[in-house]
Amino acid sequence: MPSINFWCNNMQSTKMTLAYSPCPNDTYIFSAIASGKVAIPGLEFDIHLHDIEDLNQYALEQRYDISKVSCYTWLRIREHYRLLQTGAAFGHECGPLLLASKPLDIHALGDCRIAFPGALTTAWLLFQLCGLSIGMPFFIPYHEIVPRVASGEFDCGVIIHESRFTYKTAGLHQLIDLGKWWREETGLPVPLGCFVMRRGFSQDQVQAFEELMLCSIAEADRHDIASDEYIRGHAREQDAGILDRHIRLYVNDYSLDLGREGQAAIEALAERAGRMGILT
Fold first, then answer.
1. Are both 2-91+192-275 and 97-183 of the same fold?
2. What is the H or E stretch that residue 77 is in?
C-alpha cells in the first residue's frame, strides 16, 4: 500500500480528528481502527461519534478533520472538504421512506405535519426534489420519528437508518420509497452519506486514509457482526438479524469505491438541487 508507506516514511507523529455516526454501518467500518487492530504508525485518531444531523452541522463549522456527512451537506462544504472514495452509504434499495400511521394520498400532504431527520440530511433534500408538497416540516432526531408518528404527533415522517427494518412493528405504513423514486428518475444509486477530509491534506494522506478504511472493512468482514462489542455498544437496535441486515445493506461495493456510478449520483444530486435553487 504505497500511500500508507508514504505516510509512514514521510510524516512525523500526527493526530487527526475523526467523526462518524453510531449507526452499525459506520461502526462496522471503523471498529478495527477504533480498537487499533489496523493502524498507520505515527497516526493517532481523536474519535467522536454523533448523530448524522449533528455531524452535518459540525461539518459546516469545520470542526473535524475527517467526518461522515450527508451527501446534501457535502454539496454545501465542497470549498472546505474533499470527498473520499471510501466509506460511502449509497445503494439501490436503501433510500429514505415516507411513512404514516394510516394510508394517505401522497399528493395531498399540504396540511400534514411531516417529521424529517434533519434539515441537512439527504432525506430532506430528496423529499424536496421529488415534487411532493412539503406540508409543515419539523426536524427531529431520526430515532424519534417512528414513535412520534405512531403516537399521532405527526401525520407522517421520513425515516432513515435501521428504522426501515422496524417501522412495521409500530403499525406504520409506507407511502413512498424515496430511494426507489430516485432510481426510477436517474437510474443511479441513491447517494445518502459519504466521508470527507478537510482540504489541506495531501493526496498521499487522503489515499493513505482511504486505504486504512479498506483495511478496517476487510478486518470487520472476517468476524461475526453479532459478536462485535463495538458495533453493539453503539447500536440502537440490538437484534442480531437487524444489525446484520443494516450492515449488509449500507456497507457495499460503493463503500469500497464510489466509482463512476457513485460520482454520477452525486453530480445528479447537485444538478437537480441547483436547478431548483436549493443550494443557493
1. yes
2. none
Question: Between 7 and 129, where is the model more confident?
Answer: 129
Q: Is the pLDDT of residue 2 over 50?
A: no
pLDDT digits (tens, 9 = 90+) for 250-268: 999 999 999 999 999 999 9
Name 26's Cβ contacts closer than 8 Å, sequence gap at least 6: 20, 68, 87
Active site residue 80: no
| Average pLDDT of the segment spanning 145-153 | 96
Cβ–Cβ < 8 Å for 95, 126: yes
Superfamily of domain 97-183: Periplasmic binding protein-like II (3.40.190.10)
Cβ neighbours of 28 (radius 10 Å): 26
Three-state helix/strand/coil letters over 150-174:
HCCCCCEEEECHHHHHCHHHHCCEE
- The hierarchical CATH code for the domain 2-91+192-275 is 3.40.190.10
Q: What are the boundaries of each domain within the chain?
A: 2-91+192-275, 97-183
- List Cα–Cα distances, 71 to 111, 129, 145, 193, 264, in angstroms: 28, 14, 21, 5, 13
In this prediction the pTM is 0.92
pLDDT class for 224, splitting at 50, 70, 90?
Answer: confident
Q: Which of 48, 50, 107, 161 is catalytic?
A: 161
